[in-house]
Every structure is written in structure tokens, then in C-alpha cells.
Amino acid sequence: MDKSTKIQRRRADFVGASAEYIDQLYEAFCEDPDQVSAEWRSFFYGFDHGVDTEGQGPAGHLPQPSLIHPGLDRLFMAYRLSGHLFADLDPLGLVANQRPKELDPAYYGLQSADLQQPVNVVSIEAEQALPAAEVIEVLERVYCGTLASEYLHLSAADERRWIERRLESTRGDLAAQNSNRERIAVLRDLTAAEGLEQYLHRRYVGQKRFSLEGGDSLIPLLDEIVQGGGQRGVTDVVIGMAHRGRLNVLVNLLGKAPSELFSEFEGDHSLDAGSGSGDVKYHQGFYSNIQTPGGPVHLSLAFNPSHLEIIGPVVQGGCRARQDRHETDAKDLVLPVIVHGDAAFIGQGVVTETLNLSKTAAYGTGGTIHVVVNNQIGFTTSHPQEARSTLYCTEVAKLIQAPIFHVNGDDPDAVLFVTRLAIDYRLTFQNDVVIDLVCYRRQGHNEADEPMMTQPQMYQRIRNMPTTRQLYARRLVEDGLVKADDAEEMRESYRYSLEQGKVVVREFLRGSRSGYEAHWEEYLNARPDEQVETRVDRALLCRLGQQTLKLPEGFTLQRAVARVVAERQRMLSAEVPLDWGMAETLAYATLLHEGYAVRLSGQDSVRGTFAHRHATFHDQNNFSTHTPLEQLFEGQPRFEVINSILSELAVLGFEYGYATSMPGTLVIWEAQFGDFGNGAQMVIDQFIASGYLKWGRLCQLTLFLPHGFEGQGPEHSSARLERYLQLCAELNMRVWVPTTPAQFFHLLRDQMMRRFRRPLIVMTPKSLLRHPMAKSQLQAFTDGALASVLPEADDLDPQRVRRVVLCSGKVYFELLQTRRERGIEDIAILRVEQLYPFPRHPLAEILSGYGQLTEILWCQEEPRNQGAWYQIQHHLRFLAQSEQSLGYAGRSPSASPACGDATLHREQQMALIDTALSAGRVEDPGERLDDTDMHIDGNLSS
């Protein structure tokens, strides 16, 4: 008898059973037997293993099962699927949840007799069957109490089963899952959380602190992550969070001394000598070491700007760097924790981008514990329905199949339980997990805000509510764990500790150095005028170069790539000059040889957007690949070249975090086109440009931004050079426009070999990657050095030069070629390769060699209101002598970076070349207002 006939025969055994429902159950059983109940498993195993319809199967086979009403299975599944819709999550009780009809036994035609049937639900009671009514009561407590769970969207059956068993085995009694000692410790954490806020509220009236009040359970939650994580072998916890509750976390979790915080409130906190501008107190980070049952755990709270969720990818990058320091897989040692706001979690696109990184090989960190402090009020005054289009603010986490647990913040027992569940899940399955801490905000958006203006009903209820600490203390008194006087003594003791100004975290380990200090010590007091040797011995350079061209036996290259490899062989033998791709490869190879690791990422970085890099070769006959720089020699440092996800913001944030945690690695982010950096401007402005001045964070991150006007339209021309120069001050970063492969080689080596570590912005070329004039002889790598200004290339008589044209980038080669074609001998062309810090002294020295110089002219491809002109002209005016005029050659001001018409582009380009090489004097545009500007201004003023 075939299987389908058996199913048809067996259907007759079920009174009231739906044939369609049985078919659905059987399909689920075939996919994963544990998706159906034990009774249905026994039933399906029966005919799968040969038991006939009369139950006369072979000896040793499963017996004929006792059968239950199919509606019971559907009801049980409904609790797991929809129970969260009726859970008791809101401490304020503002919205009355409507009970889903799927949770009503009558919906499935169940009668009283059906509810007395014994059923075996392994996740509740493995040893015996329970009456169905008792199972329903358990599921009601588990899924409709103060903890609501969403996990059935997970495709991994083992993960679903694991969560189901952890939840249902508690029978809904979450307080019983915590020992008396642990519950008293929770009360102590709540007392600290509330005590700090109330103390600051009284002492610093009206000062902004973005208090945690109403979300007090965050402190015992984070404390459990640290202590529980340490007990399970975690050695590092890296936390990212915005400003709400940050001061509380600093003092009550990481061990920042209250006296230091009070000094910041009072405005007499002295900045370190090298800390620059500093930042407000609720953006500050902190490092400490905390004792746990499993040993010390290093805590890092990342410095954070006001852009709420942007810290997420930075934390991920920092965690990945810490994991990469270990020789073996360290995902269970380093744990990322990100604390979100409810409206920000779903509202900020960088959250989605960061979640999308989580399971990729190059950016994964083994899962993150996400904690959403859900104040139910959005950001300032908005209602949840104004802040999102979904039922929960956590829906976005389903993108990566992360389980989501919503918990009532006024039930600390449930909070403690779900925190342990989250830790164990993350360490077991190395996947992200979300805790949605549903709470409220006792104060306004900040302490100077009056929430009654916009949320009168909510705040009338809040002001009459006992605090989370008061509620929990009352519960522990009722349970006989503490006396009312004990709870009051805790409160007074904490207040006394605050007044003493000393560290209040008992597990704080004094005298230990932070990981940041340990790794960055040799770079902390470096001098900005440091000079390093970047040339490389020829024999070594060629030996390493040959290794970068070595292929496995039988490896077949694509025809064009084979030509590239053959040409690079000729370059190493000095038959032909070296191009950009080979110079870059040699820079990486030599840095690896000297002990530096390299990490390069971007949307097409392995091949290179313009097919110039070919860091990885692809066999044309199979799926194998070969990356020579990964295996130059045994025991070499790590080399990674990564095709990133299609993201700028999250990826650059990740690389910044990685770079600040890995000083021995040249970390590079490459934009596919330079203006794609627009998508990551937040990271550039708030971290790369200002991280050192605000927070003292050193960073050697390098940005490759392809730049050059080749008639490809507005979005593929400009890397927005002017923006980076505008951000430059106080030696915060370097901006270069190298024009030769050798310059690029020396620049990359210089970036890692110098101890004065700052971010490096490189305007990399496009057409110059293969330009015959943009190549370098091998000698330039072995005997040359990095130059901030490149002098005149031709043999001109210095005494005949009347004009010096200064420029950067691709336009140099067009100027040079045109000058040669026209036979001009009285105009010299200099390349300013480093635009910040501007090389005044080297440039002045070169200019002094032209005794008859009457005119200095700046030439650029970019419109006059863009590019370098406005940011460097003050340097040029300083350099020009009294008898020398200053001129400009370039495009007129424009609201667009470049034109979109190729013909118009060529006309504009030729015009600026003609101006730069003209015989007559070129006017300084600073002396007059452009006619177009005057016309527009006139229209506006009229």
C-alpha cells in the first residue's frame, strides 16, 4: 500500500478532523518532524515506518498513537504565533489589546471534553502528558504575560525549537527562574538607576541629561549581559548607544566616578591636553574592566555623536577588529551590544544597512544583542503611529531572521530572564537577537522640556505611577526576600556613595589599563612633522612583486587579465614603467612584509571599479580563486580585499570602527565613484574629521575617492574635494591628490609607517589608471620619496618663466600635453599633491627659483565654488610676492559638479586649459563678482 493511500485510510480514524489540515500537518512533518506535536509525529511516523491501517505493523515499530482533536495543535501554534498580540507589555496600560480570536478554543470547534484530553507537549513537560486545558494555561502565561516572543519567522527549525523549549519550560513563572540573590541584585541595580537620576535632577535643575527614568530596567539588563556574558566566557563587551540613559550607564555599569560626572555638569572638568574641542557629557565614551564570575570583562562604551544610530556600524567594526586580533575564531569572546531608541531603530536607514552586514563573511561579528529602549513616544513628541508604519518598532530585525522579545520594563524578573535567554541564544547560534524593552519616559525629551504640552494623557498617568524600583521593592517584600527597611537602606546607601563621588560599581577593577591605551600607546605623542623612509630595496621589491603574480598550477586566467599579469612581469624587469595597479599592489606587499596588515573594502574593490586592481584572480575553468597578497609568505599579516554590500554609510562606519581598534592595519574604504561618499557623509563629518578633536580617538583610516572630470556627468566626476578641505583644521586629517603611481606607493606606505596617525583622504584617478603619461619608473620606488609638491617636469629655463600654473590631479596631464604641443616655454606647471596640510614651505622654495615670475595661477577642473580654490587661495595669496599677481583658470561657479553633455564638457575643459596657458594676464576672480552671480543676486534682491 503506497503512502498516499495510507493517509486516506488513516483520515477515517479522526472524527471531525479536516483532511486539508492533516495534509498541511504532514507537509510540515516532512519538512521538519519537530514542527508538529508529539502525537502527530507518532501518527506520521507510523505509516512512514510501515505500520498498516489496522496497527498490525512489524514488531518494534511505533504503536498506533492515541489521537487528539486537531484543533488543539492549531490552538497551541496560535499562542506561539499570535500570543504577543495580547501580551501585557505596556507599563502605562494606555492601550487595551484586543484578544485575537485565534486564541479562543471555540474558534477551532473545541468542546470541554476536548480540553480534558491528555496531550504531550515536550517543551513544557517531557515526561508526562498534561490535560489540554493545563497546556493552554501554561501557553497563556508564557506568551501573553509580560514577555512576548516572536520567533516563528526563523527559518532554522533548531533555533525555533530551542527558543520554544526555553520559553515553555518556565511554565510562565519567570520570577522562579531567578535566584533570591539575583533578584536582590536586580533591586540594587534599580536603586542605583533611579538614585542617580533623582540626585542629578535635584542637584542640576534644568540641565539636560536625557535621563533613563521610566526605562530603569536597562541597568539590570546590561549588568546581566556583562556578568552573564563573563560567566559564559565573554572577555569583551562593546556597547553602542545614543544619549538617553548614557550617564546612568557610564556611572552604574562602567564605573565612571560620579565626581567626574559632577565636574562635567559644573563646567570645571579639565580637558586633556590633546583632547581638542571635547564633547558634551552625554556623548562621551568610556573603558573599564569589570570582574565577573568567569573573570574580568573589558567594557567599551563607544563615543557617540547626536546621530542616534550611526554608532551601530562603528561598534560592529570595533568588535570585528577585536575578534581579528585573536588567532582563532573569537566570536564568543567579543560581544557587541547596541542600545537603540524605538523610533530610531525603525526610522534610521543605517540600522537596516548594519543588520544587512551581520551575516556577511567580511563584516559579521557572530551576532549582536540589540536592546530597544522603547519609550513609546518616538523621539520628541511623536506618537508611535507617527514614527512608523508597523505594529512594532522592531519589525526591521526580521530582515535577518533575528528573534524578537518584547518585555514589560516594569517586570524586572521577566527582563532578567529574557536577557539570559538572549545571551545564550547569541552564543549558541551566533545570530542577532532583539530585546524590546517596553517602558516610558518619566521626564520630557530632555529635562528642560514640558511633555504635558503634547502628551497630556500619558504624563498624567506617569506622574501618578510608582517607579520601577518601588514596584519591584514591593514585590520582593511580598515574597519575603527583603524588608521594607532593607529597600530604604539600599536607597540611602547609594545616595551616600554618590555624595562621596567615588566609583559605585562594586565589580570595577581599579588600576587596569584600557584596551585603547594599550594598543595606541606608541602613537599617542607623535609629532606631526615626522618623516619616514618609504623607499624599498629593489631586490626585495621585485621578489615580493613576483609573488603577487604567482599562480597555482593549472590556473587559467581570463584573456585580458592574463595580459595584465604579463605586463606586470615586464614592469618588474624594468622593461616598461609601472602603472597605478602595480604600484598599489607593491605598496600592500611591502607593508605586509614589514608587519602591517591590510584591509580594503568597497563595492567593487577586489577587481577595482575600473578593472585596474585584480587583487583576486578567477580561474576560467572552475569556481576557484587566488588572491596572491593573502599568501606572500608563511605567517604573514592578514590581507583582506572585500567587495562590500551596496552601502556607503554602514560600511564606512564599520571600517572607521575597525581602524580605531586596529592600529597595525592599513584600513581602506574605497568609493565606487568619489561622490558616492555623499552617502556616508555622516561618518565623515562626525567621526573621521572630528573624532580626534572631540574624543581623542586616533585613526589611520584611508579613503579612496575616484575623482576626475571625464565627461561622465555630475554624479561620476567629483569626489567633492571641497567638502574634505572645508572640514580640515588642527591637523585632523590629510588630503592628497597623487598623480603618479610612485607617489601613491609612497603615500600608502607613509600612512602606516608614520606614528602621527590621522585619517587620509585620497582623490584617486580614473582615466589616469592607464594614462601613458601617468606611469613611474621602477627607480622611483627604490630611490624616490613622497613629495607634497612635484616640480616642473620639463627642462625649462627658470629665468624665462613668467607664470607658474599650480594644479592637482588629472588636469596636469592635459596642461602638460597642450603646453608641449604649443611649444610654450615661459609657463611652468607645478603639481600640489598634498592639499592639506597645505605645503607652503616646499611650494615657496620651488617658486623662489623663478626669478622673473610675475603671475601665479591656480588651475582646476571643478567649478570655481567647488574643488580646492576657495579652500586654499589664502595660502596662494600669502605665497604671491608684491609684484606677482594671482589668477584662476577653471569652470565658472555651478550648482552641479559637472555638466552632463560630453560636447559641452570638452568645450569647458579646453577653455580652462586655454586660460591657464594664455599669453595675457589672467584675472583673480576674487577681485570681481561673476556676472552670473550678479544677475542672480540682482533678481533676488529686487
From TrEMBL:
Protein name: oxoglutarate dehydrogenase (succinyl-transferring)
Ranges where the Transketolase-like pyrimidine-binding domain occurs: 578-771
Molecular function per GO: oxoglutarate dehydrogenase (succinyl-transferring) activity; thiamine pyrophosphate binding
Stated family: Belongs to the alpha-ketoglutarate dehydrogenase family.
Keyword Ubl conjugation among UniProt keywords: no
Any one GO BP annotation for this protein: tricarboxylic acid cycle
NCBIfam families documented for this protein: 2oxo_dh_E1, PRK09404.1, PRK12270.1
Cofactor: thiamine diphosphate
Function: E1 component of the 2-oxoglutarate dehydrogenase (OGDH) complex which catalyzes the decarboxylation of 2-oxoglutarate, the first step in the conversion of 2-oxoglutarate to succinyl-CoA and CO(2).
Biological classification of the source: Bacteria, Pseudomonadati, Pseudomonadota, Gammaproteobacteria, Chromatiales
InterPro entries reported for this sequence: 2-oxogl_dehyd_N (IPR032106), 2oxoglutarate_DH_E1 (IPR011603), DH_E1 (IPR001017), KGD_C_sf (IPR042179), ODO-1/KGD_C (IPR031717), THDP-binding (IPR029061), Transketolase-like_Pyr-bd (IPR005475)
PANTHER family with a match to the protein in the record: 2-OXOADIPATE DEHYDROGENASE COMPLEX COMPONENT E1 (PTHR23152:SF4), 2-OXOGLUTARATE DEHYDROGENASE (PTHR23152)
Coiled-coil parts of chain: none
Source domain of life: Bacteria
